[in-house]
Write a structure and sequence with these properties.
Elements lengths: L2 H10 L3 H13 L9 H12 L10 H21 L34 E2 L10 E2 H12 L3 E4 L6 H14 L7 H24 L14 H14 L4 E6 L4 H7 L5 H9 L18 E7 L2 E7 L9 H16 L7 E8 H6 L1 H9 L11 E6 L2 E2 L2 E2 H4 L16 E5 L3 H18 L3 E6 L17 H8 L4 H11 L5 H22 L36 H11 L10 H16 L4 H14 L3 E6 L13 E3 L6 E3 L11 E5 L5 H13 L3 E6 L10 H8 L2 H5 L6 E3 L16 H6 L7 E3 L4 H11 L8 E3 L15 H6 L5 E2 L11 E5 L3 H12 L4 E6 L1 E3 L3 H10 L5 E4 L10 H4 L1
Parallel strand pairs: 4-6, 4-7, 7-8, 8-12, 11-12, 13-16, 13-17, 17-18, 18-20, 19-20, 22-23, 22-25
Antiparallel strand pairs: 1-2, 3-11, 5-6, 9-10, 14-15, 19-24, 21-23
Helix pairs in contact: 4-5, 7-17, 7-18, 8-15, 10-18, 11-22, 13-22, 19-20, 19-21, 21-26, 22-23
């Protein structure tokens, strides 16, 4: 690298106007500026003094000044060139001012043939202004526009800059490669046209207008495989999903066609889901490398899949690839309206670089149709670009013309290289169009008549590229016709095969991960498995949990908490927090991992957990579990960002890819789960019915009506019960920490997984009567119903059923009256409802004349309607 290039690179990464002002001050009075600038300006003056004799004229001073202007021009192309590109295939770009005309930089046409040292800055050496301009336009203003100068690390900017400017953002592909790109476009286009012709009026949310997505994903996959990627986790909405399934993941075309006509699902998918929501996975070869491709199932909530995709990728990297995030790449395919409008995108991008949620960077691809449902982009967002969310974590954005497949492939390769080198998100914005309305039966001209007149006459990317290849002599028309004919014949064969059977073949998502697990049955909940842990092991875990290093200072109240826990073990009187930690410790000692995250999850909202203890006057925390857990049995706890939707989605994805880990999301208050209601409705409650997926995610929702308003801290038990059916989830409201201990352990000691919603207490965390003994933990098991042992069975006249905190309110009154004719029955598991055990208790109290349900909540809330 030449010294001149170093000089101008350095200038370009600083504010040009400020440098120019400093230089003027230096020229007048060197002592007026900081001495650190003297050497730089002396060097610049020295460079100017080395002009050829013909340049050493009275015009030297203007040339000196114009060198700075050319540097400013170069910087402007880097910074604002993306505003003046040819990236939109069906619309003229909006006008932005000031333009990049040379007159705006104090230059004129008379300067075009003047050579400037600033050419070193873009790798040209000393070059004419015309040559510099041609280079800049080719790099920054053709089919590719780039936003990247907001990135803060100079080495990252320089790496990307050198990559782009050294090639002018262009690769000369071989004829073999070009033919491969054509085939990919041809398959994408013909697939959509075939379905449109054979299944008239059927919704498919076609990719037409954005078919370049297929070669883009293919190029990403191949370049990543060459760089060591073993697995891709792809999340996307419905636009183009069938095309991606067939032409990227190689789902058999006959299976896709059968989904248009089939009406019978396989076992455990009784309800099923529409074809453009289904997931899939496949092992394939890319560039002669074995690679696993996974497409995550997703409902119509477009961006919900984004955090789930990242959670899956994180779990796979940790458990399958020794923590190497370079081995697993999440790819999320967005719509332009969705990425700009959905808040979960911001949540997921914001958490992408945090320790608990880092997955090595997501490759974001936007299918930018320039229309959201029926709404134009000027009504759909305030930002200039739909991808401006990328600036949250300063990820580069490539805007690409969706009609230019070679530009698209080049960008895809560069994006993958960037992701692998810097473990960073990267965004690709494919400027394209949507041939039909929101779906194939929708009429787009109601709201977009001008745009759709243009689209109606616009050729598809296959034909555009085919014409280009013929003109440049890469291929002839006869060969193209043959390729198209052979592929269409193949589709006809697959359609005939599909029509031979109406039964849908829904492949389970992540089948290898879930090998050995089964779906839950009714009889699984008649009795709980034995989940006790010996007292000796529990005492040993407790000893290690309370062993603080002597050479570190700790906050005195933290020391007291640890000392209190030692006393609890000695007195055999364990509170909620210690019992919970013993559950985690016992699992990790058995080699089962535990992952817990949520807002303030390390300490716990109500300061009951303290899984890590903060140093006093030192940065950092002591991890109580640092010396607990056998191989694979790691306890990880993370304070999450102030996000529910994104974090719960991430944890659901993590649990989806890691069934042997106990994965827990904790709400700060129970009512906060409502911000993540989409995850609960579309995944936790229904994913097994729709897609056959299993998941063992646990939700902790602090719950209790304790004077904080009609809804604050109410976790809305009634909402979960309204979603509960067919063993799709467990809904728990414990009164005793021993039940929490056994429920957590049984969650990972069964050969099936279903989500578990736990309404955790607040005031009960320190209630005098809420405790467990070592015997409860060593000899017991989970109890879905707890009978009243303080009664005269034959004298009981009232049997009172309740759940959660209200039990202790009732108990206080019962004890005050010594009412042994009242039986207080605790329903610890609300769903699946322990019908047999409840009936046995009712039968036990044969002389009862009144059976009551008592709850904290109003009559139209809580479990009452469900119990009734």
């Amino acid at each position: 690298m030449s010294k001149n290039k170093d000089l101008f690179d350095w200038i370009a990464n600083n504010d040009i106007n400020s440098i120019e002002t400093l230089y003027e001050q230096y020229s007048k009075n060197p002592e007026s500026i900081d001495v650190s600038w003297h050497a730089f300006f002396k060097g610049f003056d020295f460079a100017l003094s080395n002009f050829d004799e013909k340049d050493k004229t009275e015009d030297s001073a203007p040339i000196n000044q114009k060198e700075f202007q050319v540097v400013k021009l170069i910087q402007a192309y880097r910074q604002r060139g993306h505003l003046f590109t040819a990236t939109n295939p069906v619309r003229n770009r909006r006008k932005y001012f000031p333009t990049l005309d040379i007159e705006n930089f104090g230059l004129t046409e008379q300067d075009l043939n003047t050579e400037f040292e600033a050419g070193h800055n873009i790798g040209l050496g000393k070059a004419s202004l015309k040559t510099i301009l041609d280079h800049l336009k080719a790099t920054y203003c053709k089919s590719i526009g780039i936003e990247y100068l907001y990135m803060r690390h100079p080495e990252v900017v320089e790496w990307l800059q050198n990559k782009m400017e050294s090639t002018k953002n262009t690769i000369v592909f071989s004829n073999r490669q070009k033919t491969a790109f054509y085939k990919q476009l041809m398959k994408a286009v013909n697939f959509e046209q075939f379905i449109h012709k054979k299944f008239i009026g059927e919704k498919r949310f076609s990719l037409e207008g954005s078919e370049v997505l297929i070669p883009a994903i293919t190029a990403l996959g191949i370049r990543g495989a060459e760089m060591g990627v073993k697995e891709y986790v792809i999340g996307m909405a419905h636009r183009g999903r069938l095309n991606v399934l067939g032409n990227v993941l190689q789902k058999p075309y006959e299976d896709i066609f059968r989904e248009f006509e089939g009406d019978e699902y396989e076992e455990h998918i009784s309800l099923g889901d529409v074809k453009y929501h289904l997931g899939y996975g496949n092992d394939t070869k890319l560039a002669n490398h074995d690679v696993r491709l996974n497409l995550v199932p997703n409902p119509s909530h477009l961006e919900t899949v984004m955090p789930i995709t990242n959670g899956i990728a994180r779990a796979k990297a940790e458990h399958n690839y020794d923590g190497k995030v370079s081995a697993v790449v999440p790819i999320v395919i967005h719509g332009d309206a969705a990425i700009a409008g959905q808040g979960v995108v911001y949540e997921t991008v914001q958490m992408s670089q945090l320790p608990g949620y880092r997955s090595g960077g997501t490759v974001h691809i936007v299918i930018n149709n320039q229309v959201g449902f029926t709404t134009g982009y000027l009504e759909a967002r305030s930002s200039t670009y739909c991808t401006d969310i990328a600036k949250v974590n300063r990820a580069p954005v490539f805007h690409v013309n969706g009609d230019d497949v070679e530009a698209m492939v080049y960008v895809a390769q560069l994006a993958m290289e960037f992701r692998q080198k810097f473990d960073s998100d990267v965004f690709i914005d494919i400027l394209s169009y949507r041939k039909f309305g929101h779906n194939e039966g929708d009429e787009p001209r109601f709201t977009q008549p001008v745009l759709y007149k243009i689209i109606e006459n616009h050729p598809n990317p296959r034909d555009i590229y085919g014409k280009r290849l013929i003109e440049e002599g890469t291929i002839d028309q006869e060969t193209l016709d043959k390729l198209n004919r052979e592929f269409n014949d193949k589709l006809e064969e697959k359609l005939e095969l599909a029509r031979q059977s109406k039964k849908l073949n829904i492949r389970q998502f992540l089948p290898k991960t879930w090998k050995g697990f089964r779906h839950a049955k009714d009889e699984d909940f008649l009795d709980s498995p034995k989940t006790g842990v010996s007292e000796a092991i529990l005492k040993d875990i407790a000893k290690r949990l309370t062993d603080l290093p002597k050479d570190k200072p700790f906050f005195k109240k933290a020391i007291k908490i640890v000392e209190d826990r030692k006393k609890m073990i000695k007195d055999n009187h364990l509170d909620w927090g210690l019992t919970e930690l013993l559950a985690y410790g016992s699992l990790t000692e058995e080699g089962i991992g535990v992952r817990l995250s949520g807002q303030d999850a390390v300490r716990g909202t109500f300061a009951h957990r303290h899984a890590e203890v903060t140093y006093d006057n030192l940065e950092g925390r002591h991890k109580l579990f640092s010396n607990i857990g056998k191989k694979g049995g790691v306890f990880s706890v993370f304070n999450s960002p102030l996000s529910e939707y994104g974090v719960m989605g991430f944890e659901y994805g993590y649990a989806l890819a890691s069934p042997n880990t106990l994965t827990i999301w904790e709400a700060q208050f129970g009512d906060f789960h409502n911000v993540a209601q989409v995850i609960i409705d579309q995944f936790i409650s229904s994913a097994e019915e729709k897609w056959g997926t299993m998941n063992g995610l646990v939700l902790y929702l602090p719950h209790g009506f304790e004077g904080q308003g009609p809804e604050h801290s109410s976790a809305r038990i009634e909402r979960f019960l309204s979603l509960a059916a067919r063993n799709n989830m467990q809904i728990m409201n414990f009164t005793n920490p021993a039940n929490l201990f056994h429920a957590l352990r049984q969650q990972n000691h069964r050969d099936f997984r279903i989500p578990m919603v736990v309404f955790t207490p607040k005031s009960l965390l320190r209630h005098a009567k809420v405790y467990a003994t070592l015997q409860d933990l060593s000899q017991g098991q989970f109890m879905p119903v707890i009978d009243d042992e303080n009664t005269d069975t034959d004298e009981v006249k009232r049997v009172v059923f309740c759940s959660g905190k209200v039990y202790y309110d009732l108990l206080e009154r019962k004890e005050a009256l010594n009412a042994r004719d009242v039986a207080l029955i605790r329903l610890e598991q609300l769903h699946p409802f322990p019908d047999a055990k409840v009936k046995a208790i009712i039968a036990k109290y044969k002389n009862a004349i009144l059976h009551l349900w008592v709850q904290e909540e109003p009559e139209n809330q809580g479990p009452w309607r469900y119990i009734q």
